[in-house]
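3.2 Worked example (two chains)
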Amino acid sequence: MALYVTTTFVRDLKSLGYSDVPVSQLIPMRVHKISTDFIGELQALGYKDVPIDQLIPMRIHGVSIDYVRGLKELGYANVPPEQLVSMRIHGVSIEYIKELKALGYDQVLVSQLISMVIHKVTPDFIRKAKERSQTAPPVEELIRMRIRGRFN
């Protein structure tokens, strides 16, 4: 199905607060399947006035409505669009966050979540670290332990 820049699309964008969008942005919006439904659902989740130059990378990197909704349900409401993109690029999944919560790591900072995934601080690694240290090491210590090659 081809997506075109139509007058209806432009009018619907305007109703969502996106007036006078240049053609240089309209075309990439359609190429990357940014619909007014997507924008409207983001707005309903608290993402008002996300610049188009941030909407495009969100779509490119798989920031879906389900992903944003899942994050919100886990206590991560209104994560800035740039961080949403970074989370998706590095593979921070809803399931990963749920596993961390189950292990007692509630409300880990977004930057820490990204670092944990980058350094492969997996739930199994966390369980091993907790067993060996008899406590729940802080997130930053888990990352340092992983970087140093502990419990491989």
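3.2.1 Second chain
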Amino acid sequence: MEKVPHLRRRIDEIDEKILLLLKDRIEVSKLIGKIKRENAVPIRDPKREDEKYRHIMQMASELGLALDDVRNIYKIIMAMSIHAQESS
């Protein structure tokens, strides 16, 4: 049991990194949205979204992660990015 606090601290550190990476992703998405609006390009790009999901699912499979869970997480991440592009 003495290892649990140490492992929990590691989880906390990982969570902080995940949040920082999400923030970076949203900031980049905002820039992309601005460029798309300036060039009258639609925010949504179904082809890009499909390619992204295929790549993520392939990588998740290679890493031995639960595909349904990763798919659900990425649906939320993609929705966040689309929202950031629309509102930037």
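3.3 Remarks
The CA atoms of residues 30 and 45 lie 15 Å apart.
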